[in-house]
Amino acid sequence: MLSAFTARPIVELKQRDKSKIESILAYGDRVLVGLNTGSLRIYRINEPIEEVEPDRNGDQNGDQPEPPTPKVKPADLLREEEKFSRRPIQQLAIIKEAGILISLSDNHVSIYDLQTYTLQEKLEKTRGATTFAVTSNIVKDAGTGIMTIVSRLAVAVKRKVILWTWQDMELSDEATEITLIASVKSLTWATAVKVIAGMDPGFVMVNVESQEITDINKPGGTLTEAGGQGGARFGAVSSSGMGYMGMGGWVPKPLATRLNEGELLLAKDVNSLFIDQDGKAQEKRQVPWPSAPEALAFSYPYMLALQPPSKGGLEVRNPDTLNLLQTIALPNANFVHVPQPNISLAHAGKGFLVASDRCIWRMGAQNYESQIDQLVASGRYDEALSLLNMLEDTLLQDKDGRVREIMMLKAQALFDLRKFQEAMDLFSEAKAPPERVIALYPKAIAGNLSPPESVQDIESVTGEGETDEDQALAESLETQDSKDSKESKESKESKENKETKETPSTPASTIGRSMMGMGRLVGVGGHKKIDSDAASVISAKDTKDDITKTSSQPKTTSHQDRELEGKDLKTAVHALTRFLAQCRVQIKRYIHTDGTLKEALAATSESQSEEYKPPFYYFIQQKSPTEHIDWTARLLEVAQLVDTTLFRAYMLASPTMAGSLFRLPNFCEPDVVNEKLYETGRYADLIDFLHGKSHHRHALELLEKFGKNEADEEVSETLQGPRRTVGYLQQLPPEMIDLILEFAEWPLRTDPDRGMEIFLADTENAETLPRHKVLKFLHGIDLKLAVRYLEHIIEELNDTEPDFHQMLVDLFLERLKIGDFDNDEEKEQWRERLQAFLKTSMQYNKVRVFKQLPADEPEYFESRAIVLSKLGQHKQALQIYIFQLKDYEKAEEYCNQIYVSSPQPLSPTHDPEDAEPSIYHTLLALYLSPPPPHQPNWAPALDLLSKHGARLPAATTLDLVPPTLPVKELESYFKGRIRNANSVMNEERIVARLRGVEKVELEAIVYLGDGKMDSYGRKIPGGLNRRVVIDEDRHCAVCHKRFGGSAIRVYPDNSVVHSGCLRGSVGKKNTNSWR
């Protein structure tokens, strides 16, 4: 249990002193004690001094040890005002700004001087007063806008609330009276202008400025008393409450206290209600008090409840979770006093006072760091987190770090309870380092991070004890909803009632330092720790979240001892995969797969007060606070750990998900993945992984082994054959040409067509491969593969490098000369491919090729003719077609191609006598005047004259015709020439007529204009026929004067201006229309 406060008695009435303490007031280092005799005692509190134990053996030189320092009293009595009042002093308060002390005695409220304690004024209006409340606040004056201190005193006098106000230390003239429905039993200030009045019929909130009274109602259907209806005033005595009448007329006192900013707690009997400063009820469960509290208070950040004097206990609760954190045994204590916030810092409220009739205790608080450590050590992680959330950042060192650490401890405890998904969700929320989470798993998942197997100690606790502790841990981590159940509430109340009964009751006469040493604190692991300064007796059991086992201790529970296996292991691994997948996405925001950061780290300087931490620091687990960290290297290690562990998790729980991890850039460790995938026979995933990690040689070796069916293991059909190897090689970049060529040989020899896809695919990698290396490699395997590759890069990729073109011709000729063909048809296809390439390519060496072509082999005649044509030797080419091939159709087709590709005269009528003979003239000359020993060939010559007579000039053609040839044979030639001449003449006539029409149109435009229309649809006269009418109504567009006999200028749009106004009219639009 928590030890937030330690009780220290500061004032103890002696046995011979028959007085009783009625009221106390603390401010600064002073404590005012009001007695039942009417006396007022003023004490000064002395801070305790730690005692140093002297050396009992003395000095080695024989000197006697120094005498011990006298012990300082907790408090010194400074003075006593015996005649302060005639009756018991029931209540005390001060208004420090006004320097006054307020006292309630003899049913009157009196004002005393704070320094001399002399009576200044007895407020007669307060006759019959039962209680009062004081508040001081800094408010802005509505008239002047200046901040002033306003103090208010509210006094309960039967059914009235009487108010006095001090502003700037001056008391207002008149008191304000507000009448309520019943006698006021308690007053508590909610704000500077709102006070809560507790009565038997319930609570109301009173606005002292507007005097508006608001009932504080219970929320409908919740937090109601037995038999009450939702929406009724909270604390009202219902029909069930009439039972109080049978108890001597006792009615529980209404209690109220301020909690955190803007929140208040109301209580009556065991019922409680949380409200805001406007009096609206909050949806919050009731405080599980075992009995009606005697008093309520708030000491930041805890809620205090004093049990009745017969029980003598002070309960310390968390106002957020409402769980009991500490019970301090204070016999016969009957009231609590917390210094007002305006005279004591909020956090100094730790030094509040608790008093009985004979003793006053001052509560000393441990620092918040120690309190949080205690909660964590006892396994109460929810309470520790709640306390951290309530405390301000300045009160703690590295608050965010503590919250994160405790969340991780809670998540680890949930994991030990086999609540894997809840644990991983909490790890994700805390941004836990993946290394810490992975270490919770066995070696099959965590690898080297897995903790060594724990050895069971022979002196460990019994199995029954382990079960109880495990159950306590499970209960502590349940959700808040389960705490609201009726059964848990009843069991809790009964347990706390039992605690209270077991709490020892010490008589007031024996109270003192001897009592302060009897408290026992149940620490971590159930060991008892004796604290001489402790004033609390803490029971062995507490609320649900009181866990006596800490996660940092050796695991001794049955859950923790049992290894993760079977269904539990798979469930835990499924939860881990979701956590790691989320970490993986976040890590990839900061680092590339090559280990470089996406954004450079900020430059650090010596002037920085704190050590620099990059935005991804929470992924890295620091071994010590002073450790120097290479952030980039550590982040890369974490990324590798996350991906490798995620791979192991997938392989164990969801093997089909492993492939998706490899197809994306990853940080997996190759050795781990390689071994695991090979063992499980997931060869396809192994190849994908090796490709992603750029371990291409290993992958290609495996593919060759599987493709050639040389593996001892049975592989799937998709890995057999060269198809997978070809696909893998296609994905490699050109820089890896040596590796590509090394492993491309066996696919090319096994299946040449599929193997050539490596080099012929329509991909960027294939098109950018070093072509000389590829060509040399293919030529070494098969000449046909080299020819196919050259045709691809020349014809499809349009490579114009002469070496490739010449090499292709050489390979064609080499293949034809070898003559290794299956049949004549295949040989003819190769010859046609050679001839087609010779025709289309312009990059090879024509002279070299012509020399390579045999002159005496008929199968190369046409090839030689094509090369001669490329060299411009058309006559020699035609001689091959006519005299060697005797193919007149090809000769004529050759002439047609040459004629079409040659530049022609601009006009078809151009036929000068000295024109250069055309290619047809050369062909005709070879037909009619062939070189010896060839004879004239009349048939193709006459056919040429009849088809292409128009392209053969008569002057040169008729010279070739021998005189013996009958004119009748030339009939078709002359008809063609005459037809061509008539066409020329008719074309000239048509052109002349068309030019005449064009001339008429131009003259019309000059004389009549272009026929444009104005905005009114009227034709605007133009050209030489344009006219402008100047009459008396026409004005100059510039000066707006009549023209008269002045010189004018007319614009193309018929606007008219004076000649002198010409310069000023530039850019102005004419508003006059033409007439």
Describe this structure in words.
With 1075 residues, the protein is of the alpha+beta class. Among the domains are: 21-47 and 73-122, Thrombin, subunit H, CATH 2.40.10.480; 130-217; 251-359, TolB, C-terminal domain (Neuraminidase); 694-799. The protein has 34 helices and 32 strands. A hairpin with a 5-residue loop joins strand 8 and strand 9 (119-123). Mean pLDDT is 80; it is low at 52-64, 221-230, 238-248, 343-349, 454-558 and 1069-1075.
Describe the protein's topology.
Elements: E1 5-12, E2 21-27, E3 30-35, E4 40-45, E5 75-81, E6 89-95, E7 100-105, E8 108-113, E9 119-123, E10 129-140, E11 147-157, E12 160-167, E13 170-171, E14 176-179, E15 184-189, E16 194-199, E17 202-207, E18 213-215, E19 255-258, E20 263-268, E21 271-276, E22 295-299, E23 302-306, E24 313-317, E25 324-329, E26 335-337, E27 353-355, E28 359-365, H1 368-377, H2 381-390, H3 399-416, H4 420-430, H5 434-438, H6 443-446, H7 463-476, H8 480-483, H9 486-502, H10 513-516, E29 520-522, E30 528-530, H11 558-561, H12 566-587, H13 631-653, H14 658-662, H15 670-680, H16 683-692, H17 696-707, H18 723-730, H19 737-750, H20 752-755, H21 757-760, H22 764-767, H23 771-781, H24 783-796, H25 802-818, H26 824-840, H27 846-852, H28 861-870, H29 874-884, H30 888-901, H31 919-928, H32 938-948, H33 954-960, H34 971-1008, E31 1048-1050, E32 1056-1058
Antiparallel strand pairs: 1-28, 2-3, 3-4, 4-5, 6-7, 7-8, 8-9, 10-11, 11-12, 12-13, 12-14, 15-16, 16-17, 17-18, 19-20, 20-21, 22-23, 23-24, 24-25, 26-27, 27-28, 29-30, 31-32
Domain CNH: 18-343
Protein name: CNH domain-containing protein
Keywords: Membrane
